[in-house]
């Protein structure tokens, strides 16, 4: 028995969703949804909205793709909540680091920092907890004008630190500061900052689910 799907189906039905909408969101058969929600009573307004939707016809392909993508993101977050309850200190530390420092993108893991040990730890976290192949990792350096003379050395430093091949390096950004800040910038952040990037909806949404489980809150905008 798919208890979670049945519970979600009944909740969606009580909010006025059609059987077809519920089927598409949960990825289950229409016959199952029909059985699960047959005794859920709808208001007159909800029934009217459903009738209007039926007259408009089925969801267009773009809407179907969007609904399916959202469903997969939800599954990854659900998996993340489970992993938060089962995995150890390294997993928890990696997720908490991402909560504090990570870019909150929908489909990409990206963490930027100037501290080499922070990036090295996060790289180990992705390898051990998500089996990320180094070939999938990318880095992008953000440098300043006083780094230009040794830009290649800095880029090699980050690649070596993270154990990545040269093909993992994206084009570096060099920020030219104003004349008023030149003297203040000298010898500050000797390696600039580096972003470690993995394009994976599944991984980042799993991390989001774990963060919410650890923190005891819900953040719907991370899903949408």
How would you describe this protein?
- Helices cover 58% and strands 10% of the residues.
- It has two domains: 3-81, no CATH class; 87-223, 60s Ribosomal Protein L30, Chain: A (2-Layer Sandwich).
- With 224 residues, it is of the alpha+beta class.
- Helix 6 (89-101) crosses helix 7 (116-130).
- Helix 8 links the parallel strand 2 (138-144) and strand 3.
- It has eleven helices and four strands, in the order H-H-H-H-H-H-E-H-E-H-E-H-E-H-H.
- The model has no long low-confidence stretch (mean pLDDT 87).
- A four-stranded mixed β-sheet has the order 1-4-2-3, with helices on one face.
Main traits of this protein?
alpha+beta, 60s Ribosomal Protein L30, Chain: A, 4-stranded mixed sheet, 11 helices, 10% strand, elongated
Short account of what is shown:
The chain contains 11 helices and 4 strands.
């Amino acid at each position: 028995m798919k208890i979670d799907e049945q519970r979600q189906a009944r909740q969606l039905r009580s909010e006025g969703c059609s059987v077809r909408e519920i089927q598409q969101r949960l990825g289950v058969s229409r016959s199952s949804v029909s059985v699960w929600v047959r005794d859920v009573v709808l208001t007159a307004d909800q029934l009217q909205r459903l009738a209007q939707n039926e007259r408009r016809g089925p969801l267009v392909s773009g809407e179907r793709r969007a609904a399916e993508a959202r469903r997969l993101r939800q599954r990854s977050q659900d998996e993340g909540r489970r992993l938060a309850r089962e995995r150890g200190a390294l997993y928890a530390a990696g997720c908490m680091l991402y909560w504090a420092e990570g870019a909150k993108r929908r489909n990409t893991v990206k963490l930027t920092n100037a501290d080499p040990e922070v990036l090295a730890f996060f790289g180990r976290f992705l390898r051990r907890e998500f089996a990320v192949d180094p070939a999938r990792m990318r880095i992008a350096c953000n440098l300043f004008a006083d780094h230009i003379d040794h830009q290649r050395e800095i880029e090699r430093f980050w690649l070596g630190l993270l154990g990545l091949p040269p093909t993992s390096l994206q084009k570096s950004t060099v920020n030219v500061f104003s004349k008023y800040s030149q003297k203040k910038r000298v010898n500050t952040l000797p390696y600039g900052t580096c972003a470690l990037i993995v394009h994976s909806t599944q991984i980042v949404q799993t991390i989001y689910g774990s963060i919410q489980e650890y923190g005891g809150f819900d953040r719907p905008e991370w899903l949408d």
